[in-house]
Please model this.
Amino acid sequence: MQHLAISAYGKYVPRMGRAPAPMADDYAAVVTRGHAWVAEHGDQLVGLLVMQPAEGHLLLENIAVAPSAQNTGLGSRLLRLAEQHALAMGLPEIRLYTNEAMTENLGYYPRRGYRETHRATQNGYQRVFFSKVLH
Model:
């Protein structure tokens, strides 16, 4: 999973001037917590989804798609999976954040029904926070 995160997020390092947080996550701990899902194509890991139930919502901590699988709809399918899990847990909302330097995401999430709620500096990163109320 670490390799997938590095390949998926690596293009942002020059824009941000540092590695995005998911590149350094402890994926063994994520798996141990039981909140990670992966997508495979053949024997290749092509997608990663990390979610964490929180009070009244599901926090989407990380969604990553391998460069070879980008623009195939996999990211949208992973988002739908997160939404299905939230509803199955009785959580009516999904929250997520992205870095403001990841400009593609600033349009991507609103096209999928997410609305920007605020911007803040968190752990030294300039983040943009989004929310989607599920029906």
Summary: The CA atoms of residues 16 and 74 lie 25 Å apart. The beta strands are 36-41, 44-54, 57-65, 93-99, 115-122, 125-133.
